[in-house]
Amino acid sequence: MAAALLPLPVRSRSAAGALRALLAALACAVPAAAQQPAVGGPVAKPWDAVLVASFNIQVFGESKMSKPQVVDVLARVVRNFDIVAIQEVRAKSDDIVPSFVRAVNADGSRYNYVIGPREGRTSSKEQYAFIYDTNRIEVDRSSVGVVPDPQGRLHRPPMHARFRTRIVPVEMAFTFWLVDIHTDPDEVPQELDALTGVFQAMQTARPDEDDVILLGDLNAGPPEFSAFRRIPGITWAVSGVTTNTRRTKTYDNLLFTQPATREYLGRSGVLDLQATFGLPLEHALEVSDHNPVWGAFYPAEVRQQTLPPMAGQLPVTR
Amino acid sequence: MARVTADPAPAWISVADIHDWIGQLGDADASQRAAASELLCRAGTAAATAAVPLVRACADDNDQVREWAAAALEDLGPPPDDSIPQLVELVSGSHPLAAYWAVTLLGRSGQKAGVATAVLAACLDSECDLSVAQRAAWALGKIGPAAAAGRAALEKAAAAADPRLARLAREALDVIGP
Asked: Which of A290, A115, A310, A140 is nearest to A209 (CA)?
């Protein structure tokens, strides 16, 4: 069950409808620009869901940022979502993510970011980042950090941050941890085992928060998630569909527990770079060897009631 | 064995392309080397024949070349069997990143890399870069019983102060057996 800041004001069979009506009314508070068509302005997002994505932007550094066509696709990807957990920022410069966020915001969007330290056992380091739409999401900056890993079980220990939606009153807002991970492909079973412990630790990291969403490039698909099955109620958003750009592997996902994260709307997908942007594989691979994956979550804390079906528009996906 | 399995080579990449990009890794112009490294990375497992040149590229003095080479190697899968002798030589090179990836590819080769046991065992010495020593312990475990000659070095590493090195050494000993 979600650790709501305050219980929802409605509990009856009509609770879902009442909440939906409230959200519809609140949608009027979303800046007008956010409700315009995608062309020429910020992407219109659903008023009854927040879209959380994960995207491994393979070797996201100076080379990619020097290619305007690549930056354009990456920016258009990000604008589809409320939060994007990024893996594989690899650069000597500290300006890659800030420059990219400026490119994302060039259409009037209002994204911001948090970024982690350089991680990795060799001289080749990576950083995690969260890029989020400040119109709809806020981050508790005091919650940003890296999971301690004194035993060295994870090549790139995950970055965590706690977020809150901004499209419902603060006392109703959905709050949640995001835990961003990129596993080492040579030690996947061991790292998934370690991540099981990380997930459980995050569930109890704060007494007022048990919504934990572990997301990233796991280098593994659901058939290899046996370690995660130790977590009661664990489930994942992406199953039975490939997530790499070559459409051969399921590597990326979002994991959470259903008893706690009732806000999950059962809607998820893979934003296929080739199909969405009409790119041949050769050009899609210039953007990344991974497609973004996403899940939709209700923007208010949910306790008992069944959620209504979504009415808002979702990203083109498969 | 590595988890990565080979994808079919994309239609836009030919054997000749891979050959050309390997040659380009030796260009005097760093931007050309970086471009080649990036193209080989995009080729995925189709660039397996570039395993040795990519390991060498990890010692390049240009960081873009190194980053793309390391990223290419991460997803390359097992190297061709005939590259094992050259990878053994690269383990002893002076650049830790190149040594790390040579060791990693040998580990992905599994028991076929038994000939690398001595050089991998030598990496467990405390003088070696820690990331290379840890990966060497992992690689010996991947080689398995064919790495029995590395037992003594692994037993010493299993008592190392570094918890990761000690754990990987213990795990390798379990796989190699008595």
From this structure: A140
CA distance B90 to chain A (A): 16
- Is B131's CB within 8 Å of A122's CB? yes
Contact B67 A248 (CB under 8 A): no
Distance from CA of A56 to the nearest CA of B (A): 12
> Are B76 and B54 within 8 A, CB to CB?
yes
Q: Does B174 touch chain A (CB under 8 A)?
A: no
Mean pLDDT of A13-31: 41
Cβ atoms B144, B111 nearer than 8 A: yes
Kindly report, residue by residue over A270-292, the tens digit of the pLDDT: 999 999 999 999 999 999 999 99
Q: Is B36 a residue whose pLDDT tops 70?
A: yes
Tell me if domain B1-77 and domain B84-178 are identical in fold. yes
A262 within 8 A of A1, measured Cβ to Cβ: yes
Inter-chain CB proximity A122 and B12 less than 8 Å: no
Strand order in the sheet with A127-133: A111-115, A127-133, A83-89, A50-60, A293-297, A264-270
- B2·A186 Cβ contact <8 A: yes
B75–A289 CB contact, under 8 Å: yes
pTM: 0.89
Q: Give CA separation, A249 vs A221, A266, A273, A312, B91, in Å.
A: 8, 22, 15, 29, 31
Higher pLDDT: A259 or A65? It is A65
Q: With H, G, I as helix, E, B as strand and everything else as coil, classify residue B147.
A: helix
Q: Which fold has domain B84-178?
A: Leucine-rich Repeat Variant (1.25.10)
User: What are the residue ranges spanned by the domains of chain B?
Assistant: 1-77, 84-178
| Identity of residue A222 | P
Whether A204 and A239 have beta carbons less than 8 Å apart is answered as no
Q: If you measure CA to CA, which chain B residue comes closest to A153? A: B164
Is the ipTM, as predicted for this complex, more than 0.90? yes
Domain B1-77 grouped into CATH 1.25.10.10: yes
Rounded (5°) CA angle A16-A19-A23: 135
User: Which residues in chain A are closer than 8 Å to B66, comparing Cβ atoms?
Assistant: 123-124
